């Protein structure tokens, strides 16, 4: 396997931290034991947690006005995979990459899969792109794709999704994520019912092409680029579509795709109940689809989402097998550092959710002891599980402090010398 960061450097980094980490881990174990929690059992559970990294996330993102490229940015998908391999090498909870097409198209997918394996990662869900026009594309998606009034545009969008399925088969993926920007920017622009019916008709063609062991992830978004009305604007529309299409269709929840103050954890509970939860695109937001690092604005909400997920897993909820992926792309940080930080934050919230005393919580809920029910959640959320996460990473060959080890390695500077700098550009990408 290719090692992007020198393993000796990681070992030295961990050796310097080992005494402190082991002491903190032991202290945490004593604290948890008093609450009836075996830290060894907890460690084994958390060590199994995994979240996928988006291929597009390792490049510097942008705003609607400008993009400011960073040093050593990936030039193509092979560079992206290498950067994703660095993330996995240091955090040890991001074993897969979610590619996006046609951004990540290559001539030889066997070679790409081998390159990923050499970098210690595999492939997660494949993502289609019918929300922007590509070079030499015959028909435009300016006024929609899967829901376009023109049957030829819809056929083109369907064909692209079918191509993504074929690519995914070669990469070892088991799911297709479908997000469209279709909708309207002016009242009267679109016929709401006919537009939704066209969405269902197009997706039926894609759904029918799915292999038997694949799933179809339908992603909703409140707004953008259709600001007046979006076809799949909330979880209700997504659920209606998934129920119409069939058992392989599920609803994907992107934490940034909701209005401020939306109770996302309740949406999660409803989709679990409906047996239609596909999984997550983790990020954070202040105003809308900000694509900020996970937990950077509202870590308690992220914890509450995992509280619902852990409860569903522990109670044996039917058809519960969510896929986890990061989805962020900002413009003021090193993307690798941000993705590592987000991966650790998501893993942290999972560990904290496992610490919820569910027997006590149920008793407080059933007796309407509101304060103690809330305090039970807060006790788990306020538990500092940092030593646990550090121990898990170190035992797996990762870094006690991934960002510190990454910076010490000089990886970004090395890539800057290899990968030519790209000039500034307008727009998100």
Give your account of this protein's structure.
The protein is α/β, with parallel strands linked by helices and 429 residues long. Helices cover 47% and strands 10% of the residues. The chain is built from 15 helices and twelve strands. The strands form three sheets. A seven-stranded parallel sheet has the order 3-5-6-8-10-11-12. A three-stranded parallel sheet has the order 1-2-4, covered by helices on one side. Strand 10, helix 8 and strand 11 form a beta-alpha-beta unit. Helix 3 (77-91) crosses helix 14. 46% of the residues are buried. The mean pLDDT is 96.
What is the first-to-last residue Cα distance? 31 Å
Mean pLDDT across every amino acid position: 96
Uncertain stretches: none
Oligomer: single chain
Class of secondary structure makeup: alpha/beta
Question: What is the percentage of strand-forming residues?
Answer: 5-15%
* SS field, number of helical segments: 15
Whole-angstrom Rg: 22 Å
Adjacency order of strands in the biggest sheet: 3-5-6-8-10-11-12
- Mind summarizing the main beta sheet? 7 strands, parallel
Order of helices and strands: HHEHEEHEEHEEHEEHEHEHEHHHHHH
Query: What fraction, in percent, of the residue positions are helical?
Result: 40-55%
Which word captures the global form?
globular
EC number: 5.3.1.-, 5.3.1.14
Domain Xylose isomerase-like TIM barrel: 100-291
Organism: Rhodoferax saidenbachensis
Keywords: Isomerase, Manganese, Metal-binding
């Amino acid at each position: 396997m290719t090692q992007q960061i020198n393993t000796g450097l990681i070992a030295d980094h961990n050796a310097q931290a080992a005494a402190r980490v082991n002491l903190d881990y032991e202290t945490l174990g004593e604290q948890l034991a008093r609450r009836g929690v075996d830290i060894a059992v907890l460690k084994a559970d958390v060590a199994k947690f995994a979240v996928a990294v988006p291929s597009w996330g390792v490049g510097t993102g942008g705003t609607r006005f400008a993009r400011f490229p960073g040093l050593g940015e990936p030039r193509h998908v092979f560079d992206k995979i290498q950067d994703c391999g660095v993330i996995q090498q240091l955090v040890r909870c991001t074993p897969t990459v979610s590619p996006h097409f046609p951004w990540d198209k290559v001539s030889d997918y066997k070679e790409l899969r081998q390159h990923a394996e050499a970098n210690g990662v595999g492939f997660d869900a494949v993502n289609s792109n019918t929300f922007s026009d590509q070079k030499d594309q015959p028909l435009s998606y300016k006024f929609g794709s899967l829901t376009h009034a023109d049957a030829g545009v819809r056929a083109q969008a369907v064909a692209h999704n079918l191509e993504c399925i074929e690519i995914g088969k070669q990469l070892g993926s088991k799911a297709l994520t479908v997000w469209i920007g279709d909708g309207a920017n002016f009242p009267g622009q679109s016929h709401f019912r006919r537009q939704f019916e066209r969405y269902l008709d197009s997706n039926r063609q894609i759904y029918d092409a799915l292999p038997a062991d694949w799933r179809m992830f339908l992603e909703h978004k409140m707004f953008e680029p259709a600001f007046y009305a979006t076809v799949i604007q909330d979880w209700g529309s997504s659920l209606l579509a998934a129920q119409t299409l069939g058992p392989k269709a599920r609803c994907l929840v992107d934490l940034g795709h909701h209005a401020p103050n939306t109770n996302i954890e309740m949406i999660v509970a409803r989709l679990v109940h409906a047996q239609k939860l596909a999984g997550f695109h983790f990020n954070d937001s202040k105003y809308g689809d900000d694509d900020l690092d996970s937990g950077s604005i509202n870590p308690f909400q992220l914890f509450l989402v995992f509280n619902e997920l852990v409860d569903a897993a522990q109670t044996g909820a039917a058809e519960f097998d969510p896929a986890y992926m990061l989805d962020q792309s900002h413009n003021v940080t090193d993307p690798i550092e941000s993705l590592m930080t987000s991966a650790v934050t998501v893993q942290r919230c999972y560990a904290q959710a496992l610490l919820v005393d569910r027997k006590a919580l149920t008793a407080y809920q059933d007796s309407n002891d509101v304060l103690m029910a809330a305090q039970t959640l807060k006790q788990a959320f306020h538990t500092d599980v940092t030593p646990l996460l550090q121990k898990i990473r170190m035992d797996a060959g990762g870094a006690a402090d991934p960002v510190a080890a990454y910076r010490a390695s000089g990886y970004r500077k090395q890539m800057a010398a290899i990968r030519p700098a790209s000039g500034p550009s307008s727009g998100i990408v």
